[in-house]
Write a sequence for this structure.
DNA sequence: GTCTTTGTCAACTAGTTGGTTGATAACGCG
DNA sequence: CGCGTTATCAACCAACTAGTTGACAAAGAC
């Protein structure tokens, strides 16, 4: 089991939670402290701190230090890991879908050919 | 909370499990029955059936009917939902990263300017 | 120094997840 | 019909998750 495997586990699991996806969405616009991030939610500061830890363990986020504040920053690179995984299989699945279309086209053509054959025979 | 919200929850959660990602990977190559899919894993058939149910609930997979067999088919469309979500925020985060670079460049230029000023003053 | 702000750590709880086994349903084959 | 195959359903269990509260650490402000 490769290293990127475990990270994929963490990243997908992290983004499966709507609160955490919202945190990511907000951090995409600007860095923020834990308190600022927690403010809009009906949830304790500790809960948000935990969510941020999950995002950090997944490598989606890093935390700096500014006096007693702990500014949170979104890391873009990790997204690539996911996108690569997704694209690989989406592509294959779509190719298979295209091939199915091709097979159906072929069948149609064969039927046309048979019709032509019958017409030629008549 | 929109409808796609809940589906994002399900899709990300589904792909957070390595067994389920492996199932998706194998289904990208060809459709398969539950038994065929279960064979390589050290796990009961029922467990795999449950995993497939999770993938189905997320819309990643559909199940057909062939006598007592239940062929499983990968659906490519749902991947787009994820890709769109990811790309939106990855892009913003990268833009911010670029802007940071711009700011750093600006600072460097200012320092150069100051150096130039000092040199001019000397 | 003491007080306030900002955040983490620790312990607990309710609900969910990933697995197990056993029973059951649906279908094809003698 | 009864029998084997293929898969789902149901009940159970251990481990994890997402939230809570309370205590505490670290840093600035007084």
């Amino acid at each position: 089991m490769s290293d990127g495997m475990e990270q994929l586990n963490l990243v997908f699991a992290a983004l499966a939670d709507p609160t955490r996806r919202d945190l990511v969405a907000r951090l995409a616009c600007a860095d923020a402290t834990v308190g600022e991030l927690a403010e809009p939610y009906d949830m304790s500061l500790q809960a948000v701190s935990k969510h941020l830890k999950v995002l950090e363990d997944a490598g989606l986020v890093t935390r700096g230090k500014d006096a007693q504040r702990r500014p949170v920053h979104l890391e873009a690179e990790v997204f690539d890991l996911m996108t690569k995984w997704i694209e690989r299989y989406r592509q294959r699945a779509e190719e298979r879908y295209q091939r199915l279309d091709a097979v159906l086209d072929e069948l149609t053509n064969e039927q046309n050919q048979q019709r032509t054959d019958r017409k030629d025979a008549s």
